[in-house]
């Protein structure tokens, strides 16, 4: 056998080095895959050959409900038209009968106008156009207002004139407002319009900064504004969540009692019914 040349020695040395690297890589793969294979097998069968019991997270049903609700369109609950009184009804408020009004109903793409009467009781419109004699007798203690042909619109508010007659007014809905958060009087301690603590803060809610004693509510009502969509300010890319409120005074004096339609979940409750509209600034 001929002696190995220096070139042959180098070739054999490279091969031995390659084999050592291959064995090291194989050992590393086995160390990584081995426990995983054992764990997979343990999930399939226990040591006694029985399939293990699967344990679901405690909030599994809540997660499933949330996923199912993603495709539901917002809207009122199924029994909305069967309710006897409005959620925002203030106990002790007398029924109101408006006569001889030009009523803009908002139906027929906003073109429908009805000439006649309107009966409001328990915070719910009971009749539009013609009010039956039976309803008149049922609510005989109603406050009667002669509109004398004036316009009556959705969201309408009654404003009693100090000196003589009652007036009907157009209702204005402020769809982009800072009422109650950019509070009046405008003081540093009552300014909750913006938070400068971050660029995007979707968890902040205008509801939590509402001033229930804001002097601007009554001033806005005197100008015909009955409803306001209160948003955080524009200082941030995402300023927070907006909430729509009614400007009338409530006996509770709370922020949630001002809400036009409290979103489900606002007080910690959830429902499988249709969700309600939520808004982001």
Account of the 3D structure:
With 281 residues, this protein is α/β, with parallel strands linked by helices. It has 3 domains: 17-49; 86-170, Urease, subunit C, domain 1; 173-281, Alpha-Beta Barrel (TIM Barrel), CATH 3.20.20.140. 23% of the residues lie in helices and 19% in strands. The protein is built from 5 helices and 11 strands. Strands 1, 2, 3, 4 and 5 form a 5-stranded mixed sheet that branches. It has a 4-stranded mixed sheet with strand order 8-9-10-11. A hairpin with a 2-residue loop joins strand 2 (113-121) and strand 3 (124-129).
Q: Any guess at the CATH architecture of the largest domain? A: Alpha-Beta Barrel
Number of helices: 5
For this structure, what is the CATH homologous superfamily of the largest domain? Metal-dependent hydrolases
Low-pLDDT runs? 38-43, 156-169
Ends: how far apart?
A: 88 Å
The coarse overall form would be elongated
Q: Number of domains in the coordinates?
A: 3
Overall mean confidence score, pLDDT? 78
What series of H and E elements makes up the topology? Answer: HHEHEEHEEEEEHEEE
* Beta-strand percent range: 15-25%
Q: In the CATH scheme, what's the topology name of the largest domain? A: TIM Barrel
**CATH level-1 class of the largest domain:** Alpha Beta
The count of DSSP E runs of length 2 or more, i.e. the number of strands, is: 11
> What is the share of helical residues?
10-25%
